[in-house]
Amino acid sequence: MSTVNTIGSGSSSVSGGVVGQHATVAPETDPDTRWWWEALGRGELLVPHCTSCDGSFFPPTPACPHCGSTALDRRPSTGLGRIYSWITVHIAQDPAFVGEVPYTVVAVHLDEGARLFGRIANGPLEDADRVRAVPYSVDGTVLLGFERVSE
Questions:
Q1: What pTM did the predictor assign?
Q2: Number of structural domains, the chain?
């Protein structure tokens, strides 16, 4: 199983086993999201950013969801943020994940303003826990997860 460098200043790497994920269904990319998945595969977390209203958002779209502008760029993220919400999945929604349940998916509000989703590497969780994004690889597919960090 391969690993991918941690986003931000950390130097550790995370495998799917650390997040608890051993199966995957490859994400479907399109022209709006392909660049994001390619950057994640290199260990970079980039977020779409509107140069008109200065808002960051996710997922990547052709126009800003805040103001409608198409004046967008891509900004590097530290990957640091706070848990906004989470859900623990007890019933697999795809046959590939039958052996994975239960697992927890978090919604994280990044310091840069975008909100992303991914599995959490360590728990238990509390509202507003501080986390860091960590890319990890399962069967050659790089995915985004999170791990708790101390303040």
A1: 0.84
A2: 1
